Amino acid sequence: MSSAPEPAKKSRFSRKPKDPNNPGRLSQFATLWKASIKQNPLIPLWMAAAFIVVFLVITFLLHLIFDSYIYTGIIGIIFGLLAALIVFGRLAERAAYGALDGQAGGTSAVLQGLRRGWYYEQEPVAAEAGRARKMSELSNAAMVFRAVGKPGVVLIGEGPSGAARKLLESERKRVSRVAGAEVPVHLLRVGAGDDTVKVGELTKAMNKLDKKLTDAEVQAVNKRLRALGATKPPIPKGMDPRNAPRMDRKALRGR
């Protein structure tokens, strides 16, 4: 009588199968590198320049203290690599913002770069109904995104100028009725023009606004507006702002 084959024993040092939904740090960095180079081919040159300048400066200064080329060279290489990575992080962030410029729903991706203390909605709180019926027509639809922080409520509009202004004003009245007259409501519009903010400068512009609310007041206002947002805005058919391109903030910080 033949016995059943014994199951193969797993080695304690065997590698775990890779999770396709959770790529490793090297894979994330490689993806970020390819996307950044595609947007800005001069990134390697800027990184090389940063490495050379920092390496020479650090090596020269340390050589005045320590009379050892090997010791100062090693430290110079370390600081040079650190400078190159810092330059890459800054340029990669700019490249990511540049890739989002002009894309429908790009505001949602940019809002992820806000500091702590901000509350924002990933989906638009208002959208122009009937204008965009296909994915190829999304750039013609006006949308409004909302964020709540110490400056108050910030409404960000994107899309055609006239429709975006009308939608922003309508949403401002709607928000003021719920949040209260004492809560400031700021209107911003992303795009290219005198009265607009570039996508890459949106978070900077929001953080520069005067602080008017306390942490407790920010949370209270956000809860009121979340209750207001229970009614879904008329988002065009076939559109999912959650699928808009997003930046890998951890990869940019080197984590």
Sequence-ordered SSE layout with sheet pairings:
Blueprint: H1 25-39, H2 43-65, H3 69-100, H4 106-110, E1 119-120, E2 126-127, E3 143-149, E4 152-158, H5 161-179, E5 185-189, H6 202-207, H7 215-228, H8 249-253
Helix pairs in contact: 1-3, 2-3
Pick out its properties.
disordered C terminus, 255 residues, alpha+beta
What order do the helices and strands follow? HHHHEEEEHEHHH
Class by SSE composition: alpha+beta
End-to-end Cα distance: 57 Å
Q: Considering DSSP H and I runs of 4 or more, what fraction of the residues is helical?
A: 40-55%
User: How would you sum up the global shape?
Assistant: elongated
Strand proportion: 5-15%
| Mean pLDDT value | 75
Please count the helical segments: 8
**How would a crystallographer describe the biggest sheet?**
5 strands, mixed
- Supply Rg: 25 Å
Q: Return residue spans where pLDDT drops below 50 for at least 5 consecutive residues.
A: 132-136, 230-242, 249-255
Q: Please provide the count of β strands.
A: 5
